[in-house]
Amino acid sequence: MELLIERKRVSSALGKSNLPGLDYTLNPYIGCSHGCIYCYARLYCEPRIGKNWGKIVVVKENIAEILARELRRKKKGLVGLSTITDAYQPIEAETKLTRELLRILLENNFKVSIQTKSSLVLRDLELLCAKKGLVDVGFTITTLNERISKIVEPGASPPSDRVKALEKLSAEGIKTWIFLGPIIPEISEESFNGIVEIAKATNSLLYYDKYRVKPYMSGFAKELAEKAKNTDWIGIANRLKELCKAKGVEFTSGFGDLKI
Ligand code: SF4
Fold first, then answer.
1. Closest ligand 1 atom, CA of 153?
2. Closest-lying ligand 1 atom to the alpha carbon of residue 115
3. Is there an atom of ligand 1 within 6 Å of 59 CB?
4. Over the Cα atoms of the chain, what is R_g?
5. 124: Cβ below 6 Å to ligand 1?
6. Which uninterrupted H or E stretch holds 226?
7. Which of 30, 34, 43, 157 gets mutated to test ligand 1 (max ligand atoms within 8 A of its CB)?
8. How far is the CA of 39 from the centre of ligand 1 (A)?
9. What was the pLDDT predicted at 1?
10. What pLDDT is stored for residue 257 in this prediction?
11. 42 lines ligand 1 (CB under 6 A)
12. What residue owns the CA closest to ligand 1's atom 3?
């Protein structure tokens, strides 16, 4: 199935967040063409999109207008951009929707936390640099192995591009972080050293999370799920802890439930 792009009008922009540290969520798209095989976001979409994950993306075409209206009455807070899609997936190069949302949020002095697997975020560097105190940018990096990444995160920027973008943002004085999650059984561990080194070099906080088994997983994702069931997650978290401690890297459990 070719990638299908649809457009829709929405009546709300900001959502209330249940994620640690975030006050609001903001998702310019429904679906994500990065198509990560383990993605949990599909659970929060209509079944048609969830079943064809990575193949259908809906552009919320009027979301910027709605956001501008909502911000007039919302209490200031930290906005997660984005939580169930990737705000910098390839369609963003064309729509510039995320750029407009970012501009509106920062103009209204809302804090923004960006999480992405795309180097396209660098396009908005000047917006980010103009309001450094209000922004942080995190890159999800589950492996530094380009070949494996192409299998598990087929539409995302290669890990090496994410690392370069992270280095650039950090060098510009933007607060950065890395999300090492989900830790892919028997795969991510070979990259632990490298990822911790990158966190050290970019002064990034390192979040980690285990591979969570979901009923919709099939094919390779299901094979990994079987391995995940037999994985000693506390042992893995401890190995990561040792590496982080040795390098002086701050690290924490992504969702707070794998604390060590
Ligand atoms: S980039 Fe994020 S939202 Fe997009 S498919 Fe991957 S895990 Fe899901």
1. 6
2. 2
3. no
4. 18
5. no
6. helix 219-229
7. 34
8. 5
9. 79
10. 72
11. no
12. 85
CB neighbour class for 119 (10 Å; exposed up to 12, middle 13-18, buried from 19): buried
The runs of H, that is alpha helices, within 3-114 are: 47-51, 63-71, 92-95, 97-107
Rounded to the nearest angstrom, the distance between the alpha carbon of 34 and the centre of ligand 1 is 6
Say if pTM beats, i.e. exceeds, 0.85.
yes
What residue type is assigned to position 28 of the chain?
Answer: P
CB atoms < 10 A from the CB of 74, how many?
16
For residue 91 and ligand 1, the question of a CB distance below 6 A is answered with no
d(CA 112, CA 114): 6
Give the chain's largest Cα–Cα span. 50
Confidence (pLDDT) at 250? 97
Superfamily of domain 4-253: Aldolase class I (3.20.20.70)
Query: From CA 127, how far away is CA 124, in angstroms rounded?
Result: 5
Distance from the alpha carbon of residue 36 to the mean position of ligand 1, in angstroms: 5
Give residue 86 CA to ligand 1 midpoint distance, Å.
Answer: 6
Protein residue whose Cα sits closest to atom 6 of ligand 1: 36
Per-residue pLDDT of the chain (260 residues; tens, 9 = 90+): 799 999 999 999 999 998 889 999 999 999 999 999 999 999 999 999 999 999 999 999 999 999 999 999 999 999 999 999 999 999 999 999 999 999 999 999 999 999 999 999 999 999 999 999 999 999 999 999 999 999 999 999 999 999 999 999 999 999 999 999 999 999 999 999 999 999 999 999 999 999 999 998 999 999 999 999 999 999 999 999 999 999 999 999 887 777 65
Judged by DSSP in three states, 44 sits in: helix
